[in-house]
Specification:
286 residues; endopeptidase fold (from Nostoc punctiforme); two-stranded parallel sheet; alpha+beta; 6-stranded antiparallel β-sheet
């Protein structure tokens, strides 16, 4: 027998089929466990991926909200600007309206003042004429200012102490004679004779008899000649009431403190004393 027959072989012994099967089963179980664990780990690892996938959706919503907020802010700013522009326009319009109102009030006040002044002047002239009518009526009732005859005697109570005779000569005498001849005729505005006159129509027609041309209205007749003092009157002088250049009435001085004029529709052409309604001034044409 060989001396090596009892020495163990260094080669591994062959495993039996059952042993291999067991080991294969164990390995399979391990692999299955690993597979399950891997699957579980994969499943657990997938959760963060799912959360990461949701982030874009959340970011898009926030962007949309931010955009809406920006739009709302822009719209609010635009509304504020529009309101500010409207307020500024309204303030400007109110300021202009206030200025226009102040200007209108100023013009209205000026117009009112002018109208009042004109009304005052008209009232003064009307009052003067009314007083004139009243005095003339009273004088007529009392026989004052009756035209005297050639004898120089009066024909009624209260007649003037003046003899009534005119010292006028020449052209002045012709003027005096003419106006006295018109006493008793009617007063008609704008009339120049022969049956009716107004104040300046009588004066113009009287001087026309001696070929002296005078302006038609009393305003112009009051400046047609040389201004003379009322204390130095001569027959034929033109008397005027009101300011020179803006007189509202005229007559003819006939001497003896008397004048003849076409007074108003109530009295017509009359002869009256200067004291009845003292004239403002006089002009001398002859």
């Amino acid at each position: 027998m060989s001396h090596t027959a009892h020495i163990r072989s260094h080669r591994k012994p062959r495993r039996s089929a059952s042993t291999l099967a067991v080991r294969a089963g164990v390995a399979g179980g391990v692999l299955s466990t690993l597979a399950v664990a891997g699957a579980s780990g994969s499943a657990n690892a997938a959760e963060p991926v799912t959360q990461t996938l949701e982030l874009p959706t959340l970011t898009a919503d926030l962007a949309a909200q931010a955009a809406q907020s920006a739009d709302a802010t822009e719209q609010a700013a635009a509304n504020y600007q529009l309101q500010a522009e409207r307020d500024a326009a309204a303030a400007k319009a109110a300021k202009k309206a206030e200025a226009d109102l102040a200007e209108a009030k100023k013009k209205a006040a000026e117009a009112k003042k002018k109208a009042e002044e004109e009304a005052r002047k008209e009232a003064a002239a009307r009052a003067s004429r009314t007083a004139e009518r009243t005095t003339l009526s009273a004088s007529a009732d009392a026989g004052t200012g009756t035209v005297l005859g050639d004898s120089g005697t009066g024909t009624g109570a209260g007649t003037s102490t003046d003899t009534g005779t005119s010292t006028a000569t020449g052209s002045a005498a012709a003027v005096v004679s003419f106006v006295r001849a018109q006493v008793g005729k009617a007063y008609v505005s704008g009339a120049t004779g022969p049956s009716a006159y107004d104040c300046s129509g009588l004066v113009q027609t009287a001087f026309k008899q001696i070929n002296v041309s005078l302006p038609r209205v009393s305003q112009d007749q009051s400046t047609a000649g040389t201004q003379v003092s009322l204390s130095n009157l001569q027959p034929g002088d033109i008397l005027y009431w009101g300011s020179a250049g803006s007189a509202y009435h005229v007559g003819v001085y006939v001497g003896g403190g008397m004048f003849v004029g076409a007074q108003n529709p109530s009295t017509g052409v009359v002869e009256r004393p200067l004291s009845y309604d003292p004239p403002t001034g006089a002009v001398r044409v002859l």
